[in-house]
Amino acid sequence: MTKTSMLEGKSIVVTGAGGGIGRAIALAAAAEGASVVVNDIGAALDGSGENAGPAHQVVAEILDAGGEAVADTSSVSDPAGAEAMIAIALDSFGHIDGVVNNAGVLRDGFFHKMSTDQLDQVLKVHLYGSFNVSRAAAPHFKDQGSGAFVHMTSTSGLIGNLAQANYSAAKMGIVGLSKSIALDLQRFDVRSNCIAPFAWSRMISSIKADTDDQKARVAKLQQMTPDKVATMVAYLLSDAARDVNGQIFCVRNNEILLFSQPRPVRSVHRGEGWTVASIAEHAIPALRSAFYPLDVSAEVFSWDPV
């Protein structure tokens, strides 16, 4: 494995690293010189079952290429599991320098048909999982005065998609979590950023492809390989990104995009205050031109990936 200096000597935990984007991130981090804890519980896409094989397979790939890696099969949804994977990094490599919160599951369904179990499972893995692993690493980052978090969000949350209320809510929650981590830990030189990835992986292989338009979209997604996302993650983990904090990026094939963050876009004021009637007659008509349409991600990203 050819190592460069970008992550040389760093110890990185990557969750959900047994396949897809997570695997690509683990391989990219190792190729840049990092020692990697490859975490994957080996569950099915809906979160069911466990299989230790995927994590160990990725570790074998890294070791065969001359890198350093160990496997972990803890669940990110369990705080004790999160503590365990950080402990493995400390025991194996002596320190922890970066966390990539990538683990996820899907339980898609229209909101009016969604069960509390479908909501709970997705939140537990994506949002609680990101909190658990980040919280386990935070004291070590604080004490050493350095560290980097990279969290996976999604345009399903940032923009919207059909039949993914649980996933969208979790992914927007991660954006808020990341920003809070960035604010709370910036004085300790700890960074936290998000990436909304476009890449063909198991997580998006369940996208519906019944119509010609849907099939065309899936064909475009299949062109976008996880390694493009992994390169950006490796950069954000490196010291070269020491002044990049609290941001939301999107990686779409060879494009790197910076997402806006909610800020006021227009206001109306009435000295005597508002009544229900005056809001209807004046406030909303004045604000309406700045309303956002009910877009889905594919409508906003309407150009072909390059």
Structure commentary:
Residues 10-203 form the Ketoreductase domain. Pfam families: adh_short_C2. InterPro entries: KR_dom, NAD(P)-bd_dom_sf, Peroxisomal_Beta-Oxidation, Sc_DH/Rdtase_CS, SDR_fam. This is 3-oxoacyl-ACP reductase. Keywords: Plasmid. This protein is α/β, with parallel strands linked by helices and 306 residues long. The protein has one domain (11-261): NAD(P)-binding Rossmann-like Domain (Rossmann fold). The protein is built from ten helices and eight strands. It has helices at residues 20-31, 53-64, 79-93, 116-144, 155-158, 165-185, 212-222, 226-237, 276-287, 297-300, and strands spanning 11-14, 35-39, 68-72, 98-101, 147-152, 190-198, 248-252, 255-258. Strands 3-2-1-4-5-6-7-8 form an eight-stranded mixed β-sheet, with helices on both faces. The chain starts with 10 loop residues before the first strand and ends in a 6-residue tail after the last helix.
| SSE pattern, N- to C-terminal | EHEHEHEHEHHEHHEEHH
Return residue spans where pLDDT drops below 50 for at least 5 consecutive residues: none
What name does CATH use for the topology? Rossmann fold
Helix content: 40-55%
InterPro entries: KR_dom (IPR057326), NAD(P)-bd_dom_sf (IPR036291), Peroxisomal_Beta-Oxidation (IPR051687), Sc_DH/Rdtase_CS (IPR020904), SDR_fam (IPR002347)
Protein name: 3-oxoacyl-ACP reductase
Keywords: Plasmid
Summarize the helices and strands and which ones pair or pack:
Blueprint: E1 11-14, H1 20-31, E2 35-39, H2 53-64, E3 68-72, H3 79-93, E4 98-101, H4 116-144, E5 147-152, H5 155-158, H6 165-185, E6 190-198, H7 212-222, H8 226-237, E7 248-252, E8 255-258, H9 276-287, H10 297-300
Parallel strand pairs: 1-2, 1-4, 2-3, 4-5, 5-6, 6-7
Antiparallel strand pairs: 7-8
Helix pairs in contact: 1-8, 3-4, 4-6
